[in-house]
Write a structure and sequence with these properties.
CATH topology of the largest domain: D-Maltodextrin-Binding Protein, domain 2
Number of helices: 10
Radius of gyration: 21 Å
Strand content: 15-25%
Oligomer: single chain
Order of helices and strands: HEHEHEHEEEHEHEHEEHHEH
Number of strands: 11
CATH architecture of the largest domain: 3-Layer(aba) Sandwich
Length: 279
C-alpha cells in the first residue's frame, strides 16, 4: 500500500482491506491439476465464505495433487488453513504447525484404509519383501508407509524401496506378472481392484487400520480465533443446505465432522531417533 493511500485511510478512520485467507487442499495422488480444479474451488470458496459470514472474496481455495507444491504453499504466509490427506499430515504436520480440527467425509463414506497388494503366493510376511519395491500414492512419506500403514504387519526389510506413484494401474500390471512390486492402494482403489482383468493374479497382503480420509487444519495460528471458529462451524454446517451439499459434492465430499483427536495418535510422526531404533 502506498503512503498516500495509507494516510487517506488513517485520516478517514477506515481499516485497510484484509488480504484473502487461503485454504490449501493437498491430496497427493488425487486426479486433476491445480489449474483444472480452480473454477470449482472458486465456486466452493464463495459458498463457504457466505456460510461463515466472511466478506466476499476474503477466502481463497487452491488444490495440489502433489506433496511438495502443497507443502510450499502451506508454508507461505498467506495460507491460514489446509485440508490434507493422512500421509501428508504425518509427514509435514510438525514442520508446518498444522492443528487438525475437523475430519472430511468423502462421498464414499467415512475413513481411509490402505491395502497392500502383490501377486499371489510370492509374499508370506513383511520380511519377504526384501529387495522389493512398494509403491503407491502414500509413497512420498516413507515413514507413513513403514511405521503407520505396515507397522502392525511387521518390520519391512531396510532394502525394501518405498516409491511414490499417483496412478497404480501400471504397477499392478507389473505386480500381476510376477515382478517384485507390491502396490499400496487406498480404499477407493481397493474397491475397484476386482474390476481389473488380472485381479485373479493378485492378493491383499495386509489392510491397515482406519484413518481420517482428510483433515481440516489450522496452519501456524495465522487465523484469529473467531475467524477459525466461524470457518470450522461453516464447514460442519455445509451439508445442511442444498447449496452447501452441492458445493461439497463438487469436491467429492459429503461433509465434515468434529475430529476425535485420539485418531491422530497414529499419525503423529516419531522423532528420527525413535524411527531408527529397533530390536
Amino acid at each position: 500500500m502506498g503512503l498516500a493511500s495509507a494516510l487517506a485511510i488513517a485520516l478517514l478512520g477506515l481499516s485497510p482491506p484484509e488480504a484473502p485467507r487461503l485454504l490449501v487442499i493437498c491430496s497427493p495422488g488425487s486426479p486433476g491439476s491445480t489449474a483444472e480444479a480452480q473454477p470449482t474451488l472458486d465456486a466452493f470458496a464463495s459458498v463457504l465464505e457466505k456460510s461463515a459470514g466472511w466478506p466476499a472474496s476474503s477466502l481463497g481455495v487452491v488444490y495440489y495433487g502433489a506433496a511438495e507444491p502443497g507443502r510450499e504453499r502451506i508454508a507461505g504466509g498467506e495460507a491460514a488453513t489446509a485440508l490434507v490427506s493422512p500421509p501428508f499430515y504425518y509427514e509435514f504436520a510438525a514442520a508446518l504447525s498444522l492443528q487438525a480440527r475437523l475430519e472430511a467425509i468423502p462421498l464414499s463414506g467415512a475413513g481411509e484404509v490402505y491395502s497392500l497388494v502383490a501377486r499371489k503366493g510370492l509374499v508370506t510376511s513383511a520380511a519377504s519383501l526384501s529387495g522389493w519395491e512398494i509403491t503407491g500414492s502414500a509413497g512420498f512419506s516413507e515413514g507413513f508407509v513403514r511405521e503407520v500403514v505396515l507397522g502392525e504387519w511387521g518390520r519391512l526389510p531396510s532394502d525394501a524401496r518405498i516409491t511414490y506413484s499417483a496412478l497404480p494401474l501400471s504397477a499392478l500390471r507389473r505386480s500381476a506378472t510376477g515382478n517384485h512390486v507390491a502396490v499400496l492402494l487406498n480404499r477407493e482403489q481397493t474397491d475397484a481392484l476386482g474390476t481389473l482383468p488380472f485381479a485373479g493374479e493378485l492378493e491383499i497382503l495386509h489392510r491397515s487400520g482406519t484413518f481420517p480420509a482428510g483433515l481440516f487444519c489450522l496452519a501456524s495460528n495465522r487465523l484469529p480465533a473467531a475467524r477459525a471458529e466461524s470457518l470450522a462451524r461453516a464447514l460442519r454446517d455445509l451439508n445442511q443446505t442444498d447449496t452447501g451439499r452441492e458445493a461439497l459434492k463438487s469436491i467429492r465430499l459429503s461433509g465434515f465432522s468434529v475430529l476425535d483427536k485420539s485418531r491422530l495418535k497414529s499419525l503423529t510422526r516419531s522423532s528420527p531417533a525413535k524411527e531408527k531404533s529397533g530390536p
